[in-house]
Specification:
mainly beta, four-stranded antiparallel sheet, 0% helix
């Protein structure tokens, strides 16, 4: 539901965020695949933002247009971004560039696309982190031993939970829980 209106039923996973124009973007997965809808800042539907793509059943929405399938494939729409992915986190930045941080056996990776959907080559970052880490924000991972990292740099230890997001200036804000809180 969006406010009091049903958007879809049979939904198994959903992700929503605001873009640089304060338009609300919703990506969800149901029995027919992945879907995206947008609403303007006044709440009106934004018709050109309707996208429907076929993805495997059991996929999870991890960001705008991004899903992680039970086959460990990270997809943007129907396009494979990476395979062997165990965790992913995505968000739009202040330019409406789509950034995804994901973890696979090789470590942490970041990829970006411009607001027109073009791959943003300078947005590729790879860092060695434990393969069982969880992506918790742009360039941020949390490993099972409680080490929170930005890339390969340790931010905090003893962490049990973390969440990060970009602010209006693309500065990252991270909140975490540890034994000292």
């Amino acid at each position: 539901r969006r406010v009091g209106t049903t958007v879809a039923s049979g939904v198994t996973s959903a992700f929503a965020e605001f873009d640089k124009s304060n338009y609300q973007t919703l990506t969800w997965v149901d029995g027919t695949g992945m879907h995206r809808r947008m609403w303007t800042d006044s709440g009106a539907p934004y018709p050109s933002a309707s996208i429907d793509s076929s993805v495997p059943a059991g996929s999870v929405a991890v960001g705008t247009l991004l899903t992680l399938g039970p086959d460990a494939v990270l997809r943007k729409g129907t396009t494979s971004v990476a395979t062997g992915v165990t965790s992913a986190f995505a968000e739009l930045d202040k330019s409406n560039y789509l950034t995804v941080t994901y973890v696979d056996a090789a470590g942490m990776h970041r990829r970006m696309w411009t607001d027109t959907g073009s791959v943003f080559p300078s947005g590729s970052v790879d860092a060695t982190v434990p393969a069982d880490s969880t992506a918790v924000g742009t360039l941020l991972t949390l490993d099972p031993s409680g080490v929170l990292r930005k890339g390969t740099n340790t931010v905090a230890t003893g962490v049990t939970s973390a969440f990060a997001e970009l602010d209006k200036n693309n500065a990252e804000s991270v909140t975490w829980v540890d034994g000292s809180c």
